[in-house]
Amino acid sequence: MSEIKTKKQGKLIVFSAPSGSGKTTIVRHLLKQSELNLEFSISATSREARGNEQNGKDYYYLSLKEFKNKIKNDEFLEWEEVYRDNFYGTLKSEIERIWAKGKHVIFDIDVSGGLRIKRKFPEQTLAVFVKPPDLNELVRRLKDRGEESEEKISMRVAKAPAELATAPLFDEIVVNANLNEALENAYNLVSEFLAD
């Protein structure tokens, strides 16, 4: 715990899933529920911004060199090289910033990163896995986004079975077959966890 420098410590809410499962939609919904007192943990990445993404809002965009320097200086709570030279991670300073405001941290994060946070803060973390109804639906959702090339979609789909296999390692699983039900289930899980 001493690695994060703040006296106030809130809770950590992790949402992980294969790309296209709907975790971002669920996290955005939860952030709008002011009574939960949540703030989004902005991840750092070495990839370029896409579309309308903004630095400090969607991600902290770092050069590959900057990212590797921060790894060397132990500035990350967790990080991963998701694809070659494509790093993602959670800066310790981001958690400190949110906890200092007296808020709880919510993450929209890949499976490995989510499990690493749960291991580091087992009592303070609720780790939720968002599961698509099936792989075909996952592919359909990724294509419907229209944001990525067929090659990128294929890479994401190829990772999905390994990611789905980690679901039992999470505290809770929310199946996103019906979005309204998934939003309600996620809300109930988070509000019960924060009430403890």
Please outline the helices and strands.
Elements: E1 12-16, H1 23-31, E2 38-40, E3 44-45, E4 60-61, H2 64-72, E5 76-83, E6 86-91, H3 92-100, E7 104-108, H4 111-120, E8 125-131, H5 135-145, H6 150-164, E9 172-175, H7 179-195
Parallel strand pairs: 1-7, 1-8, 2-7, 3-4, 8-9
Antiparallel strand pairs: 3-6, 5-6
Please tell me about this protein's structure:
- This protein is an alpha/beta fold.
- The chain has a single domain (12-195), classed as P-loop containing nucleotide triphosphate hydrolases (Rossmann fold), CATH 3.40.50.300.
- The protein contains seven helices and nine strands.
- The protein has helices spanning 23-31, 64-72, 92-100, 111-120, 135-145, 150-164, 179-195; strands at 12-16, 38-40, 44-45, 60-61, 76-83, 86-91, 104-108, 125-131, 172-175.
- It has a five-stranded parallel beta sheet, with helices on both faces. It has a four-stranded mixed beta sheet with strand order 4-3-6-5, sandwiched between helices.
- Helix 5 (135-145) runs antiparallel to helix 6.
- The two termini are 20 Å apart.
- The relative contact order is 0.22.
- The model has no long low-confidence stretch (mean pLDDT 91).
Provide the descriptors you would attach to this structure in a database record.
Rossmann fold; 5-stranded parallel sheet; 9 strands; alpha/beta; 196 residues
Radius of gyration over C-alpha positions, nearest whole angstrom: 16 Å
The ordered H/E elements are: EHEEEHEEHEHEHHEH
The largest β sheet comes out as: 5 strands, parallel
CATH superfamily: P-loop containing nucleotide triphosphate hydrolases
